[in-house]
Each structure stands twice: as C-alpha cells, then as structure tokens.
C-alpha cells in the first residue's frame, strides 16, 4: 500500500467530532524527513480497511493546533470523534499497530 500525499483540504474540528466509528488522522508534510521515514511502517499498519485522513499541517493550521500537534508525523486514533491514542514519529509498524489496538475491535469483527 502506498500512502497518498498529504492534503490541505481539512475538515473542521466539529466535523471530526461528529464522525462515528474508528478512524486515523495523520498530520505531517510531504517534505518532512520524519514523515517520509514513517510512510512505510504507517502504510503497512494501516492496510486494514479503516478511514484514514492524511492532512498537511503547519503552525498556522487550526486543526492541528486544536489537537495540540507539535511534531510530524503525528497519528491520532479516534473512536466516534474522540482521540483514544496518539503515536508521534513512528519508525515501526508495531508502533502504529499499538495505536490501532487502543481502538479495540471493530464492530465488523463481531458480525
């Protein structure tokens, strides 16, 4: 799986909080060496069918600041719009999988 480039088209914080289910948001920038190094492990770990937003961030972007993002990449793991885990500058798929594990089993796994 190859990750898409970061997008500058951000939803609002209210829209994210209104989302239901599990999702992952990654904040970073394409030129960031830490983001480039993390892309492989992130792609492997996120191969699961899970909504995933890859958002371009900078100090002036309100969404990243509302989540108190300070380093790139930062992955937020959300359940029903609420952050349940965070992984900053992952270097292995295991780190990302640990964040996913905090989301718990999906509803689909019970059907």
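Q: What amino acid sequence fits the structure above?
A:
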């Amino acid at each position: 799986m190859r990750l898409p480039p970061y997008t500058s088209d951000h939803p609002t914080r209210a829209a994210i909080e209104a989302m239901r289910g599990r999702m992952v948001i990654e904040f970073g920038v394409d030129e960031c060496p830490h983001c480039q190094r993390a892309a492989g492990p992130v792609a492997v770990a996120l191969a699961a069918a899970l909504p995933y937003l890859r958002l371009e961030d900078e100090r002036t972007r309100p969404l990243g600041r509302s989540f108190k993002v300070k380093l790139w990449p930062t992955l937020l793991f959300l359940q029903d719009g609420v952050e349940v885990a965070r992984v900053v500058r992952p270097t292995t798929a295991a780190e990302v999988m640990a964040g996913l594990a905090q989301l718990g089993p999906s509803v689909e796994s019970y059907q």
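Q: And what stands out in the fold?
A: Residues 107-111 have pLDDT under 50 and may be disordered.
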